[in-house]
Amino acid sequence: MLCHNTYKRNKKAPPLVAINQVYLRIYDNNWTVAQEQIKFFLENPTEENVVMKPALKKFGLMPKLVFDANNTNDFAQVLVETEFEIPDWFNAHYIEHNLSKR
Ligand code: HEM
Question: pTM of whole model > 0.70?
């Protein structure tokens, strides 16, 4: 996907696997709530609503994308429900940046 390459580290946006992990962690693996919160963010991508603050600092705020409500829900669902493989660099990344796993 444009910007959020699923597994690679890039200069544009956090990979989808990171978003999946962070939202599921914050919302205690509650898929329904994680999906609702992602949907909410996609509809209201403001700095206050960003959960991944280190990503905000690194990449800036995500642009508001124009989709209809069904698409927003589908994207949120896919992001939550996909079982992403964890890339090798991922745990090292957490340690390197001292990111909390809460
Ligand atoms: C279907 C398309 C997309 C979906 C579902 C999506 C979803 C998300 C989600 C859920 C987050 C995490 C927000 C948080 O931290 O709470 C995020 C962050 C981000 N996205 Fe996207 N995104 C999409 C497209 C894009 C595109 C096209 C760009 C770049 C042009 C982009 C750039 C970013 C950036 C820079 C961040 C990190 C900063 C922030 O959280 O705002 N995204 N995205």
Answer: yes
